[in-house]
Fold this sequence. Notes:
The structure holds two protein chains of two kinds.
Chain A: H1 2-21, E1 36-46, E2 49-59, E3 62-67, E4 77-80, E5 85-88, E6 90-95, H2 138-146, E7 148-153, E8 162-168, E9 177-186, H3 199-225, H4 237-240, H5 243-246, E10 252-255, H6 259-272, E11 276-281, H7 288-293, E12 297-301, H8 319-344, E13 349-352, H9 358-370, H10 375-382, H11 384-389, E14 407-410, E15 421-426, E16 429-432, H12 445-448, E17 450-458, E18 461-472, E19 475-483, E20 490-494, E21 496-500, E22 504-513, E23 516-527, E24 530-537, E25 541-549
Parallel strand pairs in A: 1-4, 1-5, 6-7, 9-10, 10-11, 11-12, 12-13
Antiparallel strand pairs in A: 1-2, 2-3, 5-14, 7-8, 8-9, 14-15, 15-16, 17-18, 17-25, 18-19, 19-20, 21-22, 22-23, 23-24, 24-25
Helix pairs in contact in A: 8-9
Chain B: H1 2-16, E1 28-36, E2 42-51, E3 54-59, E4 69-72, E5 77-80, E6 82-87, H2 117-123, E7 126-131, E8 139-147, E9 165-170, H3 173-183, H4 190-217, H5 232-241, E10 245-251, H6 254-266, E11 272-276, H7 284-290, E12 294-296, H8 314-320, E13 325-327, H9 338-347, H10 353-358, H11 362-368, E14 385-388, E15 399-404, E16 407-411
Parallel strand pairs in B: 1-4, 1-5, 6-7, 9-10, 10-11, 11-12, 12-13
Antiparallel strand pairs in B: 1-2, 2-3, 5-14, 7-8, 8-9, 14-15, 15-16
Helix pairs in contact in B: 4-5, 4-6
Organism (chain B): Echinicola strongylocentroti
InterPro entries (chain B): Amidohydro-rel (IPR006680), Metal-dep_hydrolase_composite (IPR011059), Metal_Hydrolase (IPR032466), Metallo-dep_Hydrolase (IPR051781)
GO molecular function (chain B): hydrolase activity, acting on carbon-nitrogen (but not peptide) bonds
Amino acid sequence: MIKRLTILMMGICLMGIHLVHGQSDHTGHRRVTGTYAITNATITTQPGKQLSGSTIIIKDGLIQAIGKNETIPVDAKIIEGDSLFIYAGFIDMGSQAGVEKPEEAKKPENFDPSNPPNDVAGITPERSVLDYWDISDGSVGDWRKVGFTIAQLLPKGEMLPGNAALVVYGATESTNVLDESTGLYAQFETVRGVYPGTTLGLMAKYRELYKNAELKDQHAQLFASNTNGISRPEKNKSLEAFYPVINKQVPVIFEAKEELEIRRVLKLQQELGFELVITDLEEGSNLAQELLEANAQVVLSLDLPDDKAAEADLKEATEAAKSAHKRVVEAYNSSLANAGKFEKAGVKFGFSSNHVKQEDALKNLRLMISHGLSEEGALAALTTHPAQILGIDNFAGTIEKGKLANLVIATDSIFSEEAKINYVMADGYLFEYDVTKSKKGNGEAKNLTGKWNYTSETPGGTSSGEIRFSDKSGNLSGEIDVDDPNGGGTITRELENISYNGKDLSFTFSITVQGQKLTVSTKGKVDGADFNGTISIRDMGNFSLTAKKVPDLKF
Amino acid sequence: MRKLTYIISALLLIGAQQVDAQTPKGSLLIQHATVLTVTQGTLEDTDVLVQDGLIKKIGKDLSASSKVETIDASGKYLMPGIIDAHSHLALDVVNEATAPITAEVSIADVINPFDVGIYRALAGGTTIAHGLHGSANAIGGQSITMKYRYGTRNPDDIVMKEAPRTIKFALGENPTRVHGRGKNIQPRTRMGVEAVIRNGFNEALQYKENWKNYNSSKNQKNSNAVPPVYNLRLQTLADILDGKIIIHCHSYRADEIYMLINVCRDFGVDKLVFTHVNEGFKVAPELAKYTMGASVFSDWWAYKFEVYYSTAYNAAILTENDVVTSINSDSDELIRHLYHEAAKTQRYGGLTDEQALALITINPAKQLGIDEYVGSIEEGKQADLVIFDEHPLSVYAVPQMTFVDGVKYFDINEDEDDQRLKVSPTEMVEPVYLQAEEESCMHGVELFTEGTTFTHSH
């Protein structure tokens, strides 16, 4: 009986699906029209150039016309832009939105950590980020919502994770690929416990790989030009991935956040002579001259440090503590002024979204602007400069007839506090956002911010660690240290879906166990410095989690 | 003020020499000092004239142009800048502990000029330190000789360009613990350490041969030669065999010291310095005959098994046996008072003032291959100088001013509370590390030594 009922129900369900399929558009996602007209808007066609009361016509993914008296095609969807501000879609110079980290390479039998295979050591320059990218991943949409329409995707991994690629954040059905292999991504990150394990080993290994790629290229050319008597060059995919770099067809995109890292990259570049993009800089405007001389392209991080100094209680502080505090404030302000100083030094730069939360991106840009970056400079770093650096300024970066229809449409001048992004058009596809939606209140978030020590009882035993909450203008964020389920110490996971009303607190975080992603949901009640709650993992049940807040240190 | 001087002189130099940027060099006249030259005796009431970073003249009643700063050192003592032959200060990474041989790595890549410890070392009269790779590997990385020109943000500016290349070797417990016990690979014993080094050298000989053959045949008519695989590790070992690199070898026991002497003799390597050398006194004649010397602790021992048999007389015994001996710190703290460490040899072994001072000046300079430039107060040498209020071997001595290349980097009267060059925008209080490992030879190798019972790891 039950069996028959199930079959019956399944039949009904399938019929439902079948009905949807019974149209010419198999997916049901096809849009009504690809033609749009945004009328009577304020259009910044490129940094410093503004048209008021103008109309943009878009057709088939391209900007067809801009002007005051354009004829609106009959099939156009009309968006009244009377109070709207339009900008060229932003270009992200370094993104990992929707990019998955490849599975850890298996260690061979009788593994010798002093001489690991390349993939075990995080050396996989032959990989393409596109093989690990999913545009339907939610984070792509999150970044599109901020105004980004084109991104240089960076692969995930360690020392040499692979090749970058250029994509447009258009429809999920399209391939969205603008260009493959736009650069070889490199990082100061190593795999634990194998060679190379530190910056020391990493730099030596990089030099060696580069030199060997040069030699192998020579050998291959020799073999190609004169096969008689020349031994066959052994294939080596890691070294061959360097060929476009050696031949200066693509740059190395090296992540270097801090000044000493930037200097180390410049040193390698000086020795070996590759084309260079330094990405995710969080400081280094004092090195502007060196970067210009090295002809290095610069990508600044959209991330900014937390203003921890502002939280310090100096009431009972000693003079020494006060002067130390003053230096921290100076250092903080200097971080915020970094972009402005780069601009003054005449360095063209773009921005990277890697390592920043999407809700902080525009806020951080405003902070950079209040610390010396010009609005024009900020917009150029989001549009024209990255287009030039990436060599796509013939079709992206400005609002011009014939360029790709990538637009950011805001309710106010984009860098003003009040501005909200109402629409984003990417690759001619329109995405609309509800700007009336108010921000979810986080109650007395201040009570929560800081460190908490937690203890959790699970069938696997007692585990403990730290949870850290921080609050940026009402947006709670946090992270938790948990025992690595795959062994070997602790890992830090970012908290998601944090909700707090002054009493009830809930959040989730995810861990990967044997390749499977598990979401851990936590909820409970906060009472002063105590948290009592439960954690639940699907199919595994509920367990207790209690936490105690660590008192804030005061001077 | 000191910083300002540095910035101004740096700016002037940028203007003058855009391409061949040089480090700042100063001129000054120090008058009426008791000059402890180390190599040419003690000169009472003597002047030292420094011009463009070099000691121009030593004598009485010297004069300089009015633009040159004059320092009255009446009643004070002037000695050469102190040289530490074994330090890990101002390095972002100390150990690449992942392989028994990591000759290819270079400490020059990880210098951190922002380390305020450099300023503290200057305040203790230290002007040059040998930044070494750690002792986790039988053959560790290439080390770097640094002149402590504090104030620069550029690591290259504190590299002493004239200094020859050096490399770290390590014997005994540390490499066997990290690799043998930690990872179950060779070396697991002292025999294994010797084998690792011999194998490395033998491989390097073959590597050298391959490249020699390739280079000699590649330009010949109808050559079928293809380039061999480049191996920075073996290339570095080949450079050692060619005498281009001085070995500084971490060692404790007499048997292992003599073992490496024999290995080096077998391979024709004579640029060899032993460091720590707790049992060096047992093989002093051999050290004197076959090596460039021994760099020892003044009085550390018994912190692990292989250093039980030690003595504070070690430096004195070695010195009296004609071993070029130095006293090193291997510590960010000891580096601030190496003059006290040297003075201990007068209590334990009765060395003369000159012998004791040589342990922290000319002798480490010889071991680093820089004695023609620094290590004593002689005309023509680089003006790395320290002024003390008392004789530097007195327990009451306090350094007053420290100069590198004639530029003043420390002045006790201008010493400010906060001498950091770079401040974190988010750290309210900089972390303080109380673990000894944080500043020692085994820095950064905790990963490989988990579960061991050793607490001290130099």
